[in-house]
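Structure (tokenized):
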């Protein structure tokens, strides 16, 4: 059995998937298996996958089933059912891994497990945005995950800062994550939430892959600033503001789902954070605002970000 299972979710990826598979095969660390699941492509993707599976038997395994996912999150959850290695990594079909990506990530994982024995661990790395021809877009700047906004579990329900294509998760995490649910927006967001609530997140401040941007990405790269978000809010038509209220309702349901699944696995202080967060969805508006003061979200975010949350609370 391989030490690492690389899960690759495919759909209409004929243009780039061969190049990505080549980058996986070329890794300096070799003890891995690639598990690929195509979600009903209507281009040449299945044929490309089959060619590679025949070329690399024992390394590439193709999942054949009758499940139609229609989104990458569910596709990756289906893939996790077939994993059995000590560690799992997620691969998009259109990126390009630098040759030492696995080695660098695994070293960080082993150190994190040594310091946190028996715990669920998620490691993620930096990435370098690139154009369709893999030319770098902008200069790579490492994240500062020690910044105050990244401490909070509540913050992570509001916005994901972990890119799934850079993730490695251990068996204690992926074997306890459970089944896909329609409230789970993305697999990487959900696994990161689980790691923050029940385990450990570690970061490698180094780009280990080229994150290709070609206009058809399931999730693309963006540079967002607080002022840009504020400008969009001020210019938003009423219909978009009402949509924000609907999204906040979905967030409430997502938080309740998370608590119902993992409350018994969560660290006590994280469960307290989550319960305080849940209280801002209940009762009258002023009561909800009063609970905002108890959130470490409020402590770790600036004035503009807290205003955004307050607006959502008042509109809900």
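Design, position by position:
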């Amino acid at each position: 059995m391989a030490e690492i299972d690389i899960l690759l979710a495919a759909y209409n990826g004929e243009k780039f998937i061969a190049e990505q598979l080549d980058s996986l095969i070329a890794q300096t660390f070799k003890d891995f298996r690639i598990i690929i699941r195509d979600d009903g492509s209507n281009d040449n993707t299945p044929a490309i996958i089959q060619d590679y599976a025949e070329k690399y038997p024992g390394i590439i395994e193709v999942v054949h089933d009758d499940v139609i996912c229609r989104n990458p999150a569910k596709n990756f959850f289906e893939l996790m059912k077939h994993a059995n290695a000590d560690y799992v990594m997620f691969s998009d079909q259109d990126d390009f891994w630098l040759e030492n990506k696995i080695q660098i990530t695994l070293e960080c994982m082993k150190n994190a497990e040594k310091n946190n024995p028996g715990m669920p661990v998620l490691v993620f790395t930096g990435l370098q945005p690139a154009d369709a021809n893999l030319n770098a877009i902008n200069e790579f700047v490492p994240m500062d995950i020690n910044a105050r906004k990244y401490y909070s579990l509540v913050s992570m329900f509001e916005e994901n800062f972990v890119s799934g294509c850079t993730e490695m998760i251990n068996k204690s995490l992926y074997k306890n994550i459970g089944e896909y649910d329609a409230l789970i927006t993305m697999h990487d967001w959900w696994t990161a939430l689980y790691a923050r609530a029940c385990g450990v997140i570690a970061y490698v401040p180094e780009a280990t892959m080229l994150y290709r941007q070609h206009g058809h990405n399931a999730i693309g790269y963006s540079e967002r600033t607080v002022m840009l978000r504020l400008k969009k809010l001020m210019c938003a038509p009423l219909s978009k503001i009402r949509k924000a209220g609907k999204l906040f309702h979905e967030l409430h349901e997502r938080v309740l789902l998370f608590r119902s699944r993992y409350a018994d696995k969560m660290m006590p202080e994280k469960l307290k954070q989550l319960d305080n967060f849940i209280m801002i969805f209940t009762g009258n508006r002023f009561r909800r605002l009063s609970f905002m003061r108890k959130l470490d979200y409020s402590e770790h975010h600036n004035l503009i970000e807290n205003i955004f949350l307050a607006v959502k609370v008042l509109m809900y």
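Reviewer-requested clarification: The chain has two domains: 4-212, 226-315. The first strand starts at residue 4 and ends at 10.
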